[in-house]
Specification:
The structure is a homodimer of 125-residue chains.
Chain A: H1 10-13, H2 17-28, E1 31-32, H3 33-37, H4 44-56, E2 60-65, E3 68-73, H5 78-86, H6 89-92, H7 97-102, H8 108-113, H9 118-124
Antiparallel strand pairs in A: 1-3, 2-3
Helix pairs in contact in A: 2-4
The first copy, chain A, binds a DNA duplex (30 and 30 nucleotides) through helix 4.
Amino acid sequence: MAESASKHDVFQAIADPTRRRLLRLLGDQEMSVTIISGHFTMSRTAVSKHLRVLADAGLVKDQKVGRETRYRLDPEPLLELKKWLSNYERFWENKLSVLKRYVESDDPAVMESFLPLRTYKENEK
Amino acid sequence: MAESASKHDVFQAIADPTRRRLLRLLGDQEMSVTIISGHFTMSRTAVSKHLRVLADAGLVKDQKVGRETRYRLDPEPLLELKKWLSNYERFWENKLSVLKRYVESDDPAVMESFLPLRTYKENEK
DNA sequence: TTGACATGAAACCAAATGGTATCGTAATTA
DNA sequence: TAATTACGATACCATTTGGTTTCATGTCAA
């Protein structure tokens, strides 16, 4: 799988659904490899490799505790993703396309996050 | 390459650096395949396949004009990415990690986009 | 209408990816 | 001390991915 050769980037790391599940799982609490693997049907080794990819991208940190290795989320590299996305903010600011997709979203926070950045500037006045 | 079998998702589509370059390029204006390829060193066919992946993810739209095919950006699917990212907002709200990476960013809009969502709720009071 | 242009489709290839099973080793516990 | 647990390392495998070259087809222009 991902042979930690030369640093995976965050874009590649989150491309895999299993790794996105891992990030979500570790968002709740720090967990050992065995416990983590218990949440997946694939082998422990496979999960471990995915964790390695995430670690390469800096999205998780590991800590040895006795014979187990605890992994925890480090969301910091996601800021790069957020930065990249910000280049496209201008395309959906004040656009109906924002409503088009999430008008019936069950998560109110989602709509809030779509409010245009311009709001901040208005507040600063 | 990407054999358009069963719909590529946006996470996979943006994982490749070439495809991110394509999105950036098409953000400025609609362009034909040949013109697009002129911006890359790889073959036209290779570029065309990347465009196919992006089209599968809904990130670009194509339109036949005579003998050429014009591609243009459709940023709408990026909202899914934005939605996914919003699940991690809570981790860097009011955190120094926000400053840690971009304190010397040359783009002021970047820092603005990092202001916490909570600001909105306070405004509602 | 004849040739040049724009593009997609195929066939092919090397390398990366996602997965498995097996083994070695350090830490824990009986 | 001996068995068990937790994990990484390795070797291996099938499929996907990113790229190439070649060919077929539709469109435009002389």
